[in-house]
Amino acid sequence: MAGTYFSRHGDPVRGLAAYEDALSELTELGASAYARLCANIIAQTTAELERAHASDARGTLTAQQLRVAELVAEGYTSVEIAQILHVSSKTVDFHVGNIVRRLGVGSRREIARRLRPRAR
Question: What SUPFAM superfamilies does this protein map onto (predicted)?
């Protein structure tokens, strides 16, 4: 029940973890039918999460990373972003490095491209 609640109304990653815990417990108890049901739900939830993350670069970032990425996309430097967010420029650079890794890009310019896909 917790997995369903979190998947639908909260954090789907937390819901997925709840289903994975339930799958382990059901398997240990020998409840194979329920274990298969949990395994199917895990597969569906995982596929949905992967689709969401692949289609929306924003979905792969934390709230703070997203704020930094948006400011990078607007053309602000690390020093300017640090002043806006009231953090050090090293913190901004740390976030930019994580953003680059999470989005699989190589530069600040590519961050902007990933956050603002071109209209078709």
Answer: C-terminal effector domain of the bipartite response regulators
CA–centroid distance for 57 within its chain: 8
User: Check: CATH 3.30.460.10 for 58-115?
Assistant: no
> Which amino acid, 20?
E
Instruction: Look up residue 56 and give its DSSP letter.
Output: -
Q: How far apart are the first and last CA of the chain?
A: 41
Distance CA 7, CA 21 (A): 14
For residue 114, count other CB atoms closer than 10 A to its CB: 19
pLDDT in tens, 24-42: 887 888 888 877 876 787 7
Task: Locate the domains of the chain by residue range.
Answer: 2-55, 58-115
- Convert the pLDDT of each residue in 59-86 to its tens digit: 778 889 999 999 999 999 999 999 999 9
Degrees to nearest 5, angle at CA 13 with 11 and 16: 115
Contacts of residue 11, defined as CB under 8 A and 6 or more positions apart, other chains included, come to: none
Tokens 């997925």 -> residue: 16
